[in-house]
Fold GGDEF domain-containing protein.
Amino acid sequence: LKNADTAMYHAKQRGNHYLFFNDSMNEQAVKRLQIENLMRFGLKEDHFVVYYQPKMDIKTGRLVGMEALVRFITPKKGIISPGIFIPIAEETGQIIEIGEVVLDKACKDVKRWIDQGLFDGRVAVNLSAKQFSLPDLTTRIDIILQKNQLPSYFLELEITEGTIMDDPQEAISIMRSLSARGIHLAIDDFGTGYSSLAYLKQFPLNTLKVDKAFVDDMSSERGRNMVDSIVTIAHNLDLHVVAEGVEKAEQLSALEQLNCQTIQGYFYSKPLCAADFTSFLRAQKQR
Ligand code: C2E
Ligand code: CA
Ligand code: CA
Ligand code: CA
């Protein structure tokens, strides 16, 4: 897109940009630039907020952890979905700063919930490819944990298949240094990228997250068999399994039959803002 921007600039200079760009391409580039600017402003003005989605034990129905999910709340355009701004932030590199804001806020919130006696599990934070390949990643994480006085035991990082398969050998060494600190590691969106089973057993992983797409397919026998295979592979590798995007009771019982322990999805709860998540934790305590 950098080249496209340059081409558009030159085309505009000559006043004939229709030669190079149809309206929809032009519109897209403008939108992208708008969001990039909004994000720059939003980082300054603290417009990035963290929501939390519970991860529940399928057998006991109790909370075992949560995933931190970023929300971009702009004064003029309302909430912009991560599906829209994360890919752009990845491209521009702004994801590094956004990711650190999310980690910092998640650590702060979880520290408070622990101190209040409301929680003692792990918070899972998504780590982007750009963050993962920072040479000083572990130091950056250490600093944020220390600043919030949160022991690394309470942190889990979700890393997508694509991120770790880019350079598996390098990934293994980065993951080892995170794992050595007691940070748990989850492979996210499993099955949607080009995962290599040969590598899977070499990564120091704790958790495998079954992507929502597979959960959606569980109404068919083939779909259930697919999830069965994934769960079996995970268990053979001693990985904890989390199924995401669970919305229906049928999916829940199918997953229970396949021995999938942990569930995340609208069936239990949508992602909640910190205040609503506090209420969720309080209600859990009273069970
Ligand atoms: P993800 O990591 O796969 O997160 C799960 C997504 O599925 C979340 O979307 C969540 O709200 C949604 N979800 C959970 N349960 C259900 C369900 O039952 N039904 C449906 N329809 N959706 C469900 P969200 O919050 O919009 O985030 C989308 C993606 O954006 C995430 O996918 C993740 O890849 C990325 N993302 C979100 N926050 C961050 C962040 O702080 N850092 C980075 N690097 N990426 C993030
Ligand atoms: Ca995730
Ligand atoms: Ca996921
Ligand atoms: Ca997903």
Notes: DSSP finds 13 helices and ten strands in the chain.
